[in-house]
Amino acid sequence: MDELAPRLDFKHSAFARHTIRHRWPVILAQLIDSVYRNRVRYQEDEGIDPEKLKSLTGCIGQLRYEVTTDKPITLLSSVLPNFSEELEVWNSRLHAIGVKLTGKDDLKGATSQHPSWHSLPWLFTECYLYRRIMDHVFHHGLLSFDPFAAKKHSGLKGSVALLEQLLRFLSLLEDTCGYTSDEEIFETFFQAALWANEFDLSLHAKEEHHVGGTSDLPTHIRRMLERMVVNDTHELWRFWTNRMKGPSSVSFKQEHITSIVLDNAGPELVADLCLAEFLIRSQLTSKVVFYPKCIPWFVSDVTAADVDWLLKVGLSTEFLPGPIGVLAHTWACRWTERFKSGEFIVRNSTFWTLPCDFAELAANERTLCDALTQSDVVVFKGDLNYRKLVGDRSWTPDNPQHKLNAFRAMQLGRAVSSDGLIDCKCTPVSEIRSDSCKHPLGAPVDCRCHNEDSPSSPPLVIALRVAKADVAVGLSPEMLRKVTTESSDWWTLGRYGFVQLISPLYFG
């Protein structure tokens, strides 16, 4: 195996430095302001003692000071509700990198070698920041309090135009041609789930969000296709429908499972539900499993409570008055029934909020790894999940070997050797057969991944991501030249999209 690229950190990533020095202080300042401004509502609606909120804002203010002045980081102290082992996992990782201080210790007594906010890999530190925020929340006994909820809710209300596009298009399909497994419609829903990522409150912390326009959804999607830097949608469609022709199809097995690892709440969650509805109604899957974060995370990330709130409140006529509210309520009722029937499922795991990348999935969460491997399709949403997929390393975007190394760990059920041979039942087009084979990296692949004796198949793994961090693999040299000519910071602007096959490894 080639040597892995170095991890992004304060020294080697200009965007990491910008994030730590400028974006994080803004996010923390906005959090303090939001908790303070909504203190009366929190008291009336949730019965929270205002004095606890006052104390919480003081702790977050101290955290902001520690971040901006590069103070030593400390061990965590609060146990997650229903996930008691999570604290031990976090602190064991902190101990392993040399963290010895607790929150009660005098930070001035730390040695210069003690890990600090600027000395660790960016991904680790950013996850630690949000776990520290929730550490303070839980320490105040606010076990069900989401300090970011007000911002997520206002983001949904400011996205009425996009919601109307999504839900009217979904309703139009039902009223006219029905839910046929059509590639163009398939692409529209995947692209909608991708571009709803523009609603990302941690990247655009200073902005008010009014996502979407007045155009119809397919027209909007066609315009956004110009921003795609990696687009494997056609290959995903081809592989997906090929699998439907054999024992891995819905007709051959009791369940065909699509797992969606969620990213943002608000309109993006609505887009994810629309995608799931299309997949079930078009018989491209029989069950959709949604994986949210188990605690409030990265400002706008989905929790199980966000899913519940969306169906009960966010898509109600009280929250969304007018015709859009009536339409939204209709779909909320439909989706509530799907959750009751088991066609839609929410599953929690602490793995999504640990500071590790997905190469550590099997070692840290065997049950989750097995569940994903037994899925037929796994969709990873958003920039944070993409960073974890590729290890948050400074890969060369147009280097095929770097793509192989970055995605090797997520070939769930597919073995990839160091010489680029993929051992699975994906068949090279030039050698159509159903038995196990090895094909060279870069060979055209006709992904069927099944045989009559083994209906269980390695899943298709896909990433939907709007680039908001300086990490990427799988670009063509021509595309890399194009986007770097447009801006050297292209991958941090939140303007360029990826629909990228992770497994099987595909080099079109």
From TrEMBL:
Protein EC: 2.1.1.-, 3.1.3.-
Give the range the annotation lists for the signal sequence.
none
The Damage-control phosphatase ARMT1-like metal-binding domain covers 19-478
Its GO CC terms are: nucleus
Task: State any single GO MF term.
Answer: metal ion binding
- Domain of life from the UniProt record: Eukaryota
SUPFAM superfamilies in the record: AF1104-like (SSF111321)
Alphabetized UniProt keyword annotations: Hydrolase, Manganese, Metal-binding, Methyltransferase, Nickel, Transferase
The reactions it catalyses are: beta-D-fructose 1-phosphate + H2O = D-fructose + phosphate; L-glutamyl-[protein] + S-adenosyl-L-methionine = [protein]-L-glutamate 5-O-methyl ester + S-adenosyl-L-homocysteine; beta-D-fructose 6-phosphate = dihydroxyacetone + D-glyceraldehyde 3-phosphate
One GO BP: DNA damage response
Has the keyword Metal-binding been applied to this entry?
yes
**Necessary cofactors:** Mn(2+); Ni(2+)
Q: What is recorded about the protein's domains?
A: Subfamily III proteins have a conserved RTxK motif about 40-50 residues from the C-terminus; the threonine may be replaced by serine or cysteine.
Listed PANTHER family: DAMAGE-CONTROL PHOSPHATASE ARMT1
Give the protein family. Belongs to the damage-control phosphatase family. Sugar phosphate phosphatase III subfamily.
Write out the function statement from the record: Metal-dependent phosphatase that shows phosphatase activity against several substrates, including fructose-1-phosphate and fructose-6-phosphate. Its preference for fructose-1-phosphate, a strong glycating agent that causes DNA damage rather than a canonical yeast metabolite, suggests a damage-control function in hexose phosphate metabolism. Has also been shown to have O-methyltransferase activity that methylates glutamate residues of target proteins to form gamma-glutamyl methyl ester residues. Possibly methylates PCNA, suggesting it is involved in the DNA damage response.
Protein name as annotated: Sugar phosphate phosphatase
Q: Which organism is it from?
A: Opisthorchis viverrini (Southeast Asian liver fluke)
